[in-house]
Specification:
The protein has helices spanning 14-24, 72-100; strands at residues 2-8, 36-44, 49-58, 61-69. The protein is of the alpha+beta class and 107 residues long. The chain has one domain: Double Stranded RNA Binding Domain, CATH 3.30.160.100. The protein has a 4-stranded mixed beta sheet with strand order 1-2-3-4, covered by helices on one side. Helix 1 links the parallel strand 1 (2-8) and strand 2. Helix 1 packs parallel to helix 2. The radius of gyration is 17 Å and the shape is elongated.
Length: 107
C-alpha cells in the first residue's frame, strides 16, 4: 500500500505524518499491494476545524471518507474507522461478484 499525504493551510509535522501512517497501516492487511491511499489534511483557522479527507484507489472502485473535528488526531481516527468499514464492504462485494458471473444450474 502506498500512502500520499498533502497538507493545506499548515505545515505537516513528522509526528502527525507518522501517526496517520501508523493508523492507515491497518488497512494494508485488507488491501492489495499496489493500492494507493491519498490523504489530505486541512486546517481551518476561522472555525478551528481540522479536516481529513482520505481516498483509497482500489481495483474497480474508489473509497472516500471525510471527517472534521477540533483535533487532528481524532479526525484521523474517525477517517480510518470509516475506511475500515468501507473496505470490508468492498471486499465482500468483490468476493460475491465472482459467484454472480458463474452459470447457474448448468445452464
Amino acid at each position: 500500500m502506498r500512502v500520499q499525504m498533502k497538507a493545506r493551510n499548515f505545515d505537516l509535522s513528522p509526528e502527525i505524518r507518522d501517526y496517520a501512517e501508523a493508523k492507515l497501516s491497518r488497512l494494508s492487511k485488507q488491501l492489495a499491494e499496489g493500492t494507493t491511499v491519498e490523504v489530505e489534511l486541512a486546517e481551518e483557522t476561522k472555525h478551528a476545524q481540522h479536516t481529513v479527507v482520505a481516498t483509497v484507489f482500489a481495483k474497480g472502485s474508489t473509497l472516500r471518507a471525510t471527517e472534521s473535528t477540533s483535533d487532528m488526531r481524532a479526525s484521523i481516527d474517525k477517517v480510518v474507522a470509516d475506511l475500515e468499514r468501507q473496505v470490508v464492504t468492498y471486499r465482500e462485494k468483490r468476493r460475491l461478484e465472482r459467484r454472480r458471473r458463474t452459470e447457474h444450474h448448468g445452464v
